[in-house]
From TrEMBL:
Gene3D superfamilies: 2.30.42.10, 2.40.10.120. InterPro entries: Chloro_Bact_Ser_Proteases, PDZ, PDZ_sf, Peptidase_S1_PA, Peptidase_S1C. Residues 352-411 form the PDZ domain. Residues 1-66 are annotated as: Disordered. It comes from the Bacteria. Residues 29-46 have a biased composition (Gly residues). This is Putative serine protease PepD. Pfam families: PDZ_2 (PF13180), Trypsin_2 (PF13365). One of its GO terms (molecular function) is serine-type endopeptidase activity. One of its GO terms (biological process) is proteolysis. The chain crosses the membrane at residues 101-124. It comes from Micromonospora pallida. Keywords: Hydrolase, Membrane, Protease, Transmembrane, Transmembrane helix.
């Protein structure tokens, strides 16, 4: 009896062969060889003679989904490094990035103000990511402030304690100039014109601001050198140099109290040597000397102060400046200052300390006075020669034209006077002169004036 349905199993239709899953035994067996299960596509009749389990018949079920897998695949832990690269779903909505960029920019700007200084210091000092340290570690202030002894600052520090300001009262007011300590027992060298008009005791103001009265030891108006003395212990005298060893271009410092500005240091070079100077105030003595010319700034008040070389040795006494005059007013420094050579000033100082007066060096001849026309052929013509003087002893005569003295060319009468006074009495100098058409040489031993 039937109910209209045919319950007989239709003949199984072989399914297309399926590849076995690697590492797995095909279903329909009990661990036996693959492909032997009854009703499994690709397999033949069972070879074991054992009845297959009931679920193996499900493969022949007409109601079975033909696309269903015929094997069960269990999940396996992925092998490290073989994971598929993640791919974003293009259909998902994108997050806005502009706000993120702006936020990052704002945060970076805020951090820059806070961290910029620290990071800049770290990269500048530490040398960036490499860790290289640039520069030496900071020194302590006293060490960093030190200067080399041969630097301008080192020279100034050496000489300044020995430089003083000199003041002396007079009928026309107070005269002020400079000076420097020449001996540990208190002798101070200055210019004669600094104290010449005074009617009282000079006052010396030291580098530290302290002061002491001074007494006049002696003056030499013609050389513009004066010596005064203070009673004080612990003084530091200057170191004297050799003005005869100077060369044009040598560095120099001028130290003193220009325009009442104490402890002033200016720098320059030797601009010229043996520059003839004829100086003096109206009604006063006329001073002649072969000066050291410098472009160091020197003004009123520098008079009597030291001109020092690059080693801090005194090589001159600042005495005179050239200036411009406009509307009756004399201008200050224009880069033309003149100093008495220290070899000459030191000799005169020793004379003054020893005898109270200085000797004047002479050649024993007369030259034309101021205003005389210079020789058209150069040199200085001798107007007269003292019979027993140095020039006569060397064979010179009136009318001879002196061309050179000690190798220095002469063109003005004052040149001969200034150069002769530069040398000490007893010095032997070579004189080149012209007599008629012949040029001759003579050795002259200079002498001290008998006055």
């Amino acid at each position: 009896m039937t109910d209209g349905w045919d319950w007989r199993q239709p003949a199984a239709t072989p399914a297309p062969p399926q590849p076995p899953v690697a590492g797995r035994a095909p279903l329909g067996t009990h661990g036996g060889p693959a492909g032997g299960a009854r009703g499994v596509p690709g397999g033949g009749p069972a070879t074991t003679g054992t009845t297959s389990p009931w679920w193996s018949d499900a493969l022949a079920d007409p109601w079975r989904d033909p696309t269903a897998p015929t094997a069960v695949v269990l999940p396996v832990a992925p092998v490290r490094g073989t994971e598929p690269e993640p791919v974003a779903d293009p259909d998902l909505p994108r997050r806005p990035v502009l706000r993120q960029v702006l936020l990052v920019a704002v945060v970076a700007a805020l951090l820059a103000g806070t961290l910029g200084g620290a990071l800049g210091y770290a990269f500048a000092v530490r040398g960036g990511a490499g860790g290289t340290v640039l520069g030496a570690p900071p020194q302590e202030a006293p060490v960093a402030a030190q200067r080399r002894p041969d630097s301008l600052a080192g020279v100034a520090a050496k000489v300044l304690p020995s430089v003083v300001t000199v003041r002396v009262g007079g009928h026309a007011g107070t005269s002020e100039g400079s000076g420097f300590i020449a001996s540990a027992d208190g002798h101070v060298i200055t210019n004669d014109h600094v104290i010449a008009g005074g009617n009282g005791k000079p006052t010396v103001i030291f580098n530290d601001g302290s002061s002491a009265p001074a007494s006049v030891v002696g003056q030499d108006p013609e050389s513009d050198i004066a010596v005064i003395k203070v009673s004080r212990t612990g003084l530091r005298p200057v170191e004297f140099g050799d003005s005869d060893s100077l060369a044009v271009g040598d560095p120099v410092l001028a130290i003193g109290s220009p325009l009442s500005l104490a402890n002033t240091v200016t720098a320059g070079i030797v601009s010229a040597l043996d520059r003839t100077m004829r100086a003096g105030e109206p009604g006063g003595p006329v001073r002649y000397y072969a000066a050291i010319q410098t472009d160091a700034a020197v003004n009123h008040g520098n008079s009597g102060g030291p001109l020092v070389d690059g080693a801090g040795r005194v090589i001159g006494v600042n005495s005179t400046i050239k200036s411009l005059v406009a509307d009756g007013q004399e201008a200050g420094n224009i880069g033309l200052a003149f100093a008495i050579p220290i070899n000459q000033a030191k000799r005169i100082t020793q004379d003054i300390i020893g005898t109270g007066k200085a000797r004047r060096t002479v050649i024993g001849a007369e030259v034309p006075g101021p205003g005389a026309a210079p020789s058209s052929t150069g040199g200085v013509r001798l107007v007269a020669v003292e019979p027993s003087g140095p020039a006569a002893g060397a064979g010179l005569k009136a009318g001879d034209v002196v061309l050179r003295l000690a190798g220095r060319p002469l063109s003005e009468p004052t040149d001969l006077i200034a150069l002769v006074r530069k040398f000490a009495p007893g010095s032997v100098v070579t004189v080149e002169y012209r007599r008629g058409s012949s040029v001759q040489n003579a050795s002259v031993t200079l002498a001290a004036d008998a006055k």
